[in-house]
Design a protein that fits this description.
The chain is of the alpha+beta class and about 160 residues long. The chain has four helices and six strands, in the order E-H-E-E-H-E-H-E-E-H. Strands 1-6-5-4-2-3 form a six-stranded mixed β-sheet. The chain is globular and about 50 Å long. Bound molecules: tetrahydrodeoxyuridine (THU).
Length: about 160
């Protein structure tokens, strides 16, 4: 028997203005789009903004429904739009923020969304940087989406390539 340990490396950046200039713009875009979220049931607006390798920026927010499971997270709103329209363009960065979060640390994407980001990362064969921002406070920066989903369900996907 072997005890194994995983280590997750990420940056904690205390203030928004201490992020790289392009990352600040992306976080601001995520904040702006979160304000347009349709989240009357949870009152938990989330925004996600994506920077493409081309420099284009796309954004999305959570879209809820009275049939609760029909709702979609902010991350998948924008990622699925991007992948539907530009399947061959690479994603460089995704910034995520929530407006009404009360936790002391930035909100982190749900398991569904992590799985989606990881598959896009694997398909494009280059890392997607993930920025999690707590409004008015710190950001966490992960250089690759795989970092936040260790043991992602990817074995079959990899073998079929
Ligand atoms: N939500 C997101 O949009 N992204 C996440 O990463 C976590 C949760 C949404 C789903 C739902 O509309 C609301 O936040 C409360 O769970």
């Amino acid at each position: 028997m072997t005890k194994r340990t995983l280590q997750i490396d990420f940056l904690e950046i205390e203030k928004l203005e201490d992020l790289a200039a392009g990352d600040i713009v992306l976080v601001e875009k995520a904040i702006e789009i979160a304000k347009k979220s349709y989240s009357p049931y949870s009152n938990f607006p989330v925004g996600a903004a994506v920077l493409m390798e081309t420099g284009e920026v796309f954004a999305g927010n959570n879209q809820e429904n009275i049939a609760y499971p029909s709702g979609t997270c902010a991350e998948r709103t924008v990622l699925n739009y991007v992948h539907a329209n530009f399947p061959d363009k690479k994603i460089k960065t995704i910034a995520i923020t929530a407006l009404n979060a009360t936790a002391a640390e930035p909100v982190s994407p749900c398991g569904f969304c992590r799985q989606v980001i990881v598959e896009m990362e694997m398909n494009q064969k280059s890392p997607i940087k993930v920025i999690l921002h707590k409004l008015g406070a710190q950001s966490f920066v992960f250089e690759s989406a795989q970092t936040i989903l260790p043991f992602a369900f990817n074995d079959l996907v990899l073998k079929n390539k």
